[in-house]
Amino acid sequence: MSQIEWTAIDAYFNGLLSPSDPVLEQALAASDAAGLPQIAVAANQGKLLMLLAQSIGARRILEVGTLGGYSTIWLARALPVDGRLISLELDPKHAEVARANLASAGFAGIAEVRTGRAVDSLPRLEAEGASPFDFVFIDADKPSNPDYFQWALRMSRPGGLIIVDNVVRRGAVLATDGQDANVVGVRRLAELIADEPHVDATALQTVGDKGWDGFLLARVR
């Protein structure tokens, strides 16, 4: 099958199960207008994140990698009115766009975007007592995936879910030559999780609007 067919199948199911959504479309349009890279999750992936968070009754969500806030809006929709979402973004411009998109979506009181290196923000969150989190979505720089995951595990409750995006990388995950830092980060993450007794995990390949990639899902024991 080809990318054209994958995209057409996504369009078919999205048309039935995730119809046009002006709030999310405006968030994407604002991100495009600001020149942000077009690397947000696909609509069906965003809805999957929302459904997974809802399925465990998530009240506290952590996101590592905000971009323009598209996935953040999906995750915020999973929360009750007294829930809390904290998203960490390195780029101040991206964070500014995301905050505006979250405010337009009605989530300014629930979702907070913090700017700076996530490896610095995560220990500060722990010191503030922001954890434990019920659900963590990691979609940031891939070389740091092992560090992000270790912090996510440390700050998650038993029964919580940790989802890591972009782990297949169009099949490049099989490369063992160490030439691609993103692939090295993904492989280090998988090896770390394989030896981690406090989680049950699996990885799923995906095809669709975003091409060939996949998610890693881990449940905290």
Largest sheet data? 7 strands, mixed
Stretches where pLDDT falls below 50 for ≥5 residues?
A: none
- The average pLDDT value, as a whole number, equals 97
Q: What is the approximate shape? A: globular
Task: Count every beta strand, where a strand is a DSSP E run of 2 or more residues.
Answer: 7
The strand order across the widest sheet is 3-2-1-4-5-7-6
Structural class: alpha/beta
Q: What is the radius of gyration?
A: 17 Å
Q: Distance N terminus to C terminus?
A: 38 Å
Secondary-structure element series: HHHEHEHEHEHEHEE
> What is the percentage of strand-forming residues?
15-25%
Helix content: 40-55%
User: How many helix segments?
Assistant: 8
Per-chain topology:
Layout: H1 3-17, H2 22-33, H3 43-55, E1 60-64, H4 70-76, E2 84-89, H5 92-104, E3 111-115, H6 118-128, E4 133-138, H7 145-154, E5 156-165, H8 181-194, E6 199-208, E7 211-220
Parallel strand pairs: 1-2, 1-4, 2-3, 4-5
Antiparallel strand pairs: 5-7, 6-7
